[in-house]
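Course assignment 3, question 2. Fill in each field.
Student: A.L.
Task: Predict the tertiary structure for the chain below.
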Amino acid sequence: MDLLRAVEAAATRMGDVTYVDSEDRPLVVTPATYQSGELEVLRGDLARILCDATRRDARRRRVRLRR
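Answer field:
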């Protein structure tokens, strides 16, 4: 699976958003693309996808940070 397909599979698929008044009457509807753009992925999902894609080629090294 290539990166784009993995990211598309993890997309949040946010729907339209309807704003309502205090009596739950619809005021305005904004389309999903207005809120999230073309493709929205949660940060943790993106990190997992990138980590999985580079796991075989990456060398791991522990780094201790000084305080």
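Instructor remarks: The radius of gyration is 19 Å. The chain has one domain: 3-54.
Grade: pending
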